[in-house]
Amino acid sequence: MLIEYQVVAREHSLKIPVGLCRFFGDVREVHSEEEVKVFVEEMRKKYPDANHHCWAYRIGVGNEQTFRYSDDGEPSQTAGAPILTAIDHLQLTHTCVVVSRIYGGVNQGVGGLIRAYHSTAAAVLEEAGSKIITVYESLLIPCRYDQVGLVLRELERVSAQVVETVYLENVTIKAKIRPIDVNQCTARIFDLSKGTIVAQREKEVQR
């Protein structure tokens, strides 16, 4: 199957005044809980006057996704969950949003907090944009000199990208190919070469 997912395109910050309060939204691409902890701590230092630093993240792809969120002292489910909802609405992963609030002296109520945290997260995500990450597999294809044309034709047929070609006693072609095309392409190369070309595969991420 073709493996693709969306992440935030760039790190970004913004400020939104809500009544007498100020909400600061920050977003960053993350790939581990440790990176999330570092990000949140950076925001605590960036906004030392903020009363709350609420956050949410989603990490992983497919069945291996995980998520967490924190209200950081706000009433339960008024901050972290709305931030996560903004992330999920855009179907993003490997993304963390921190929303820091400086209290303005007027209570906003549960509904007001939910709207403010969600709208701040949604706004910073919209401005940051998103990008698609495609997971490719890397193929190493050893062949004879007279078989190079055969291999290149089959790679071109599935729009695979030739990364490197090494000419020694024999030839080794390195290519990036979508997972959805791997089995058919390698099988065709094997069959057309009468079993003399066996591709080796390994997975990697190509942005």
| % residues in beta strands | 35-45%
Largest sheet: 5 strands, antiparallel
Rg result: 24 Å
- Structure classification: alpha+beta
The number of helices is 5
Indicate the CATH architecture of the largest domain.
2-Layer Sandwich
CATH topology of the largest domain: Ribosomal Protein S5, domain 2
State the domain count. 2
User: Tell me, what is the CATH class of the largest domain?
Assistant: Alpha Beta
Question: Roughly what is the average pLDDT, rounded to an integer?
Answer: 93
N-to-C series of helices and strands: EEEHEEHEHEHEEHE
Would you identify the regions where 5 or more consecutive residues have pLDDT less than 50?
none
Please bin the fraction of helical residues: 25-40%
Q: Can you offer a commentary on this structure?
A:
With 207 residues, the protein is α+β, with helices and mostly antiparallel strands. It has two domains: 3-128, Ribosomal Protein S5, domain 2 (2-Layer Sandwich), CATH 3.30.230; 136-206, Alpha-Beta Plaits, CATH 3.30.70. It is built from five helices and ten strands, in the order βββαββαβαβαββαβ. The protein has helices at residues 33-46, 80-89, 109-128, 148-157, 179-192; strands at residues 3-8, 12-18, 21-29, 52-59, 66-70, 95-102, 130-143, 161-167, 171-177, 200-206. The strands form two sheets. Strands 1, 7, 8, 9 and 10 form a five-stranded antiparallel sheet that branches. The chain has a five-stranded antiparallel sheet with strand order 2-3-6-4-5, sandwiched between helices. The longest helix is centred in the middle third of the chain and has 20 residues, at 109-128. The two termini are 17 Å apart. The model has no long low-confidence stretch (mean pLDDT 93).
